[in-house]
């Protein structure tokens, strides 16, 4: 086991070398005694904190901070803020970023998961009151899978999710948190009543739409630029028991998108006849397909169909129900699907699974990839929000003429629509200015010496969109210059910059995003 070096003098020597080698006149404040032993800088710890899920970017921090409490984090940020040369700080949950966004070169990485159980013995507390109904107070370091397990004990559940549940609450809320439920319930950031945040000044602030609202709207989707989320109050509703899970195949992209948009038009939160989930994905003629969802008897004809058309578009939908409502849900699904839907009639597949099995559906793939040594590999992902008005052009120009033609195995490609009215424009996240827009996620995995091919393809896709006037907005994106970020935020840039000056004036938080620390 690696030995942790926690002696304050040794820690300070790191900072003197790292931050002040070029400035002999600079002075340094010692960290407070009560947190001095929280800093670790052994080789194993530093190596882990130098990379993220993407395994493409490496940024070596000076130390990793292991807090025992929220007060520890506040003390750290105050120390970093008050130092004569401010020290960069990055909160790290599962480090599921793919281009170094959760890293802090020469700074301090906060290992949020070391907080462990807290809040009177638990990082997740389920409550209710007359004004909000049921809700969960959840530590920012908590995993969504643990939120699900805990709330289900009360017969309750959040309504908006991400596809992969082994991510921290603070991490997804700092971006948006999207999945197939977002068309109806909005992203995860639209389902938060209240936050506790440590700002870039080290101040502990509780915020909501009515209290310290500027910070509340800044932090949600704010890419970690304005504060570290230490608690979120998440909306809960009664949890279903089971899920009817469908996949429908299309050879015609126009029919695929028309049907998706028709289905998401039924999106009222209280409309029990509406779908609970809708996504879409591609089956590409680029090698073996993942057919684990389908019956073995269908494998040959699915492969034949993909070979024939090159691309098959798969609409994925789900309807939740309680044990005693199965027949009613079957009828509701038939009512939704009958009529003018344009899927291939012999290619409709259905599963009936538990609610937990459905929400945690990615876990089995993760465990399989880990067993093959294919999880901790480069992930040159590209996630885009695409305006609905240009999605047909995106299909012909990108999906067919770049991804399919280049025959670089694409891995998972998701494509599904969302409703803009489910998002709050006061929040920091940027989306296309159309009533409906699409999520397109190209979730590539590659060998360590092959990721550049995907990166080049990603750049070609962005160049095509720019040249064709398709105003895409990257989600979970990365840029090399502040000018690119200014273009990304568009009309929101001035408020974003003003909020930064208000809540993190020395620009110490989340340097890996390279928004204000981009040299």
UniProtKB/TrEMBL annotation:
Signal peptide residues on this chain, from the entry's feature table: 1-26
One Pfam short name: Cytokin-bind
E.C. designation(s): 1.5.99.12
**GO biological-process terms attached to the record:** cytokinin metabolic process
Record field: catalytic activity: N(6)-dimethylallyladenine + A + H2O = 3-methyl-2-butenal + adenine + AH2
Provide the FAD-binding PCMH-type domain boundaries: 57-239
InterPro entries per UniProt? Cytok_DH_C_sf, Cytokinin_DH_FAD/cytokin-bd, FAD-bd_PCMH, FAD-bd_PCMH-like_sf, FAD-bd_PCMH_sub1, FAD-bd_PCMH_sub2, FAD-linked_Oxase-like_C, FAD-linked_Oxidoreductases_BP
Q: What class of enzyme is it?
A: oxidoreductase
Sorted UniProt keywords: FAD, Flavoprotein, Oxidoreductase, Signal
| Gene Ontology molecular function terms on file | cytokinin dehydrogenase activity; FAD binding
The cofactor named in the record is: FAD
Query: Its family?
Result: Belongs to the oxygen-dependent FAD-linked oxidoreductase family.
The name under which this protein is listed is: cytokinin dehydrogenase
Species, as recorded: Quercus rubra
């Amino acid at each position: 086991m690696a030995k942790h070096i926690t002696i304050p003098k040794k820690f300070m020597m790191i900072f003197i070398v790292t931050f002040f080698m070029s400035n002999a006149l600079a002075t340094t404040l010692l960290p407070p005694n009560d947190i001095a032993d929280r800093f670790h800088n052994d080789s194993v710890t530093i190596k882990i904190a130098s990379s993220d899920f993407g395994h493409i970017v490496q940024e070596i921090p000076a130390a990793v901070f292991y807090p025992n409490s929220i007060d520890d984090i506040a003390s750290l940020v105050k120390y970093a803020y008050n130092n004569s040369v401010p020290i960069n700080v990055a909160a790290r949950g599962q480090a599921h970023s793919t281009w170094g966004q959760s890293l802090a070169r020469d700074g301090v990485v906060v290992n949020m998961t070391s907080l462990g159980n807290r809040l009177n013995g638990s990082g997740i507390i389920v409550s209710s009151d007359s004004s909000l109904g049921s809700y969960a107070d959840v530590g920012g370091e908590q995993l969504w899978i643990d939120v699900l397990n805990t709330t289900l004990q009360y017969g309750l559940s959040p309504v908006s999710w991400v596809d992969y549940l082994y991510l921290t609450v603070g991490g997804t809320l700092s971006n948006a948190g999207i999945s197939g439920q977002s068309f109806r319930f909005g992203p995860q950031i639209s389902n938060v009543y209240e936050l506790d945040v440590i700002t870039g000044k080290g101040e502990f602030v509780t915020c909501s739409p009515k209290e310290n609202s500027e910070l509340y709207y800044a932090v949600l989707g704010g890419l970690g630029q304005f504060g570290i989320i230490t608690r979120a109050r998440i909306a809960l509703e009664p949890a279903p028991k089971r899920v009817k899970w469908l996949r429908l195949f299309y050879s015609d992209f126009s029919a695929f998108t028309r049907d998706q948009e028709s289905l998401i038009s039924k999106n009222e939160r209280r409309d029990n006849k509406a779908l609970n989930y809708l996504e879409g994905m591609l089956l590409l003629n680029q090698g073996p397909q993942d057919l684990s969802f389908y019956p073995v008897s269908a494998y040959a004809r699915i492969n034949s169909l993909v070979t024939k058309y090159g691309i098959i578009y798969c609409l994925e939908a789900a309807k939740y129900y309680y044990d005693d409502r199965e027949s009613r849900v079957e009828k509701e699904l038939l009512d939704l699907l009958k009529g003018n839907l344009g899927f291939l009639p012999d290619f409709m597949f259905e599963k009936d699974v538990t609610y937990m099995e459905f929400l945690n559906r990615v876990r089995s793939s993760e465990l399989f990839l880990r067993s093959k040594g294919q999880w901790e590999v480069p992930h040159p992902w590209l996630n885009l929000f695409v305006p609905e008005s240009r999605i047909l052009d995106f299909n012909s120009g990108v999906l067919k003429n770049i991804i399919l033609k280049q025959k670089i195995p694409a891995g998972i490609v998701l494509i599904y629509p969302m409703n803009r009215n489910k998002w709050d424009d006061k929040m920091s996240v940027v989306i296309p200015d159309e009533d409906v827009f699409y999520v397109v996620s190209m979730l590539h995995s590659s060998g360590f010496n092959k990721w550049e091919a995907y990166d080049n393809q990603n750049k070609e896709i962005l160049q095509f969109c720019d040249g064709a006037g398709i105003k895409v907005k990257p989600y979970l994106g990365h840029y090399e210059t502040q000018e690119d970020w200014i273009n990304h935020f568009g009309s929101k840039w001035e408020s974003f910059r003003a909020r930064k000056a208000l809540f993190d004036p020395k620009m110490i938080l989340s340097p890996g995003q390279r928004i204000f620390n981009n040299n």
